[in-house]
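Allow me, if you will, to draw on your knowledge of protein folds for a short while. I am sending you one protein, given as its amino acid sequence and as whole-number tokens for its backbone shapes. Kindly check, if you would, that the fold set down in the tokens agrees with what the sequence suggests. The record follows directly beneath this note:
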Amino acid sequence: MSLSVLLFGGNGMLGRQLVTAFTDAGHHVTCACRGTTPVDKAAEFITVDRDSADALKPLAGRTWDVAIDLTSHPGFVRDALGTVDAAHWIYISSASVYARGDIFEPDETAPIHPAMANDKLESMTDYGAAKSACEAAVERLAAQHLIIRPGLLGGAGDDTGRSGYYPWRFAHPTGPEVVVLMDIGFPLSLLDVTDLADWIVHCAEHRTTGIFNAAGPTATLGELLDAAQQAAGTEVEFVPVDAGLLTDAGAGMWMGPESLPLWAEIPDMPFIGTVGADAARARGLTHRPLEQTFADALAFEESRGGPISAGAAGVSDDTEETLRRLARGD
């Protein structure tokens, strides 16, 4: 049976994959967003600016089988739940709701941040609390609901550069050596965004309800680097650096410009990158090889000229050379 799907968004990394996955499965997708960036032509588009007082007026009088919301603003969630007529509500939360980073692969029973009181997320330091508040609204107001808590996403369309930087750098090295992080045992549960989108379609088709983490099998940073190098089809030597050298070079970690991604050193939070997803796998979540995830991320980076020029994660050629010199003790 074909489903009518209302998607708030549709032009971000996950949103684009959701449009593709639902339409490929024969479902009708309506994207409700501002439209400042294009949505897939396969989807119906309705202009909705959720900052406006009458933002949801264009959706009045219609019904959908499924509504999917990705917002981090609790007020937006409450307004939508009070206005939109949808039989099944799917909210895309985040593993950032978990309050502790010292639990290896936390499951859905792990403690979460208290819900924030504000209607809007104003600072990313409150991201986990904002997502908790959004979840609370869904649980209170949606009779049939599914809450999904994804971990770190990678693959096609990853505009953060977190999964694209290393395969791109391996494919475009500045020399025979590439700077990587020293802590190759750092654990990370990287999930391919296409696998997540496909699973969300599966959940919509089966009217799945409840709360589920969504994450890839946990691998070490070293295993991720090996898969990224295989995707690039090159062989380079690694120059390992630590957090101190990053600071000395004016670089950071995890994400953002001039950073080495897929790693974070946070006191008392050694497992911040891991998420347990056994329950989701029991409900149909599947995983493609890491090499394929990195290959898709690399293809996206090639299409936009690489992560550095886009202001995404990764270190510039000059910063990498500085890190190499520091690692050599020059």
The chain has a mean pLDDT of 96.
